[in-house]
């Protein structure tokens, strides 16, 4: 019983800390609604219960659920409800021979995806976090991502900017892009 209680508390703290971090950074760039609504599905039963069951505190419980059960019902639920995940935007191409492909994400969701990755690294790595941490995590997995090339390009640009120029300049750049863009697909 004690393990379930500590997992419940630990998981709740982890997802809430992540949500508050993302909200803080979304607010900094002007994405107020997205900051407030970010990852609310993590508090639904299907996602939260898996999070408690597979809680470790240093990695996502969804990956552990995939190993133990063969798939993660929590992840399938999560990525289908959160537009800041590139997986949400995977669909069949317009031509039959294209098969599944990544669709171009609106700019505001690419920015939220960038912020989500930065904050996930901060949340899990804690004092080991460096501005290049989100880029290193991305680089280790990017060859498996089904993502629109424009979306990929912008995400990589932002991750590299964070790594090379730091958080303050990257967030200032993002805010300027968002404030000067009428077209949310402009990139």
> How would you sum up the global shape?
globular
Q: What radius of gyration results from the CA coordinates?
A: 17 Å
Structural class: mainly alpha
Please tally the helical runs, counting DSSP H or I stretches of 4 or more residues. Answer: 9
Strand % is under 5%
Largest sheet: 2 strands, antiparallel
With strands numbered from the N-terminus, the spatial order across the biggest sheet is 1-2
| Assembly of the depicted chains | single chain
What is the end-to-end distance?
51 Å
User: How many runs of DSSP E, i.e. beta strands?
Assistant: 2
Poorly predicted runs: none
The run of helices and strands is: HHHHHEEHHHH
User: Which bin fits the share of residues in helices?
Assistant: 55-70%
Mean pLDDT: 94
Task: Explain what the structure shows.
The protein is mostly helical and 187 residues long. The protein has helices spanning 2-29, 32-37, 45-53, 61-69, 73-79, 107-125, 133-139, 149-165, 167-179; strands at residues 90-92, 100-102. The protein is built from 9 helices and 2 strands. It has a two-stranded antiparallel sheet. A hairpin with a 7-residue loop joins strand 1 (90-92) and strand 2. It is globular and about 50 Å long. It starts with a helix and ends in an 8-residue tail after the last helix. The mean pLDDT is 94.
What are its keywords?
2 strands, two-stranded antiparallel ribbon, mainly alpha, 3% strand
Topology:
Layout: H1 2-29, H2 32-37, H3 45-53, H4 61-69, H5 73-79, E1 90-92, E2 100-102, H6 107-125, H7 133-139, H8 149-165, H9 167-179
Antiparallel strand pairs: 1-2
Helix pairs in contact: 1-3, 1-6, 3-5, 6-8, 8-9
């Amino acid at each position: 019983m004690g393990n379930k209680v500590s997992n419940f508390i630990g998981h709740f703290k982890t997802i809430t800390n992540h949500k508050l971090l993302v909200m803080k950074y979304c607010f900094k760039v002007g994405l107020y609604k997205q900051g407030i609504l970010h990852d609310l599905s993590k508090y639904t039963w299907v996602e939260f219960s898996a999070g408690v069951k597979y809680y470790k505190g240093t990695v996502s419980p969804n990956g552990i659920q995939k190993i133990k059960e063969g798939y993660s019902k929590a992840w399938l639920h999560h990525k289908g409800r959160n537009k800041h995940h590139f997986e949400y935007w995977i669909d069949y191409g317009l031509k039959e021979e294209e098969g599944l492909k990544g669709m171009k994400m609106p700019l505001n969701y690419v920015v939220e995806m960038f912020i989500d990755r930065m904050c996930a690294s901060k949340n899990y790595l804690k004092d080991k976090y460096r501005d290049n941490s989100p880029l290193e995590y991305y680089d280790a997995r990017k060859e498996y991502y089904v993502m629109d090339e424009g979306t990929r390009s912008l995400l990589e640009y932002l991750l590299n900017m964070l790594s090379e120029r730091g958080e303050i300049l990257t967030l200032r750049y993002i805010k300027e892009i968002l404030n000067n863009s009428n077209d949310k697909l402009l990139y």
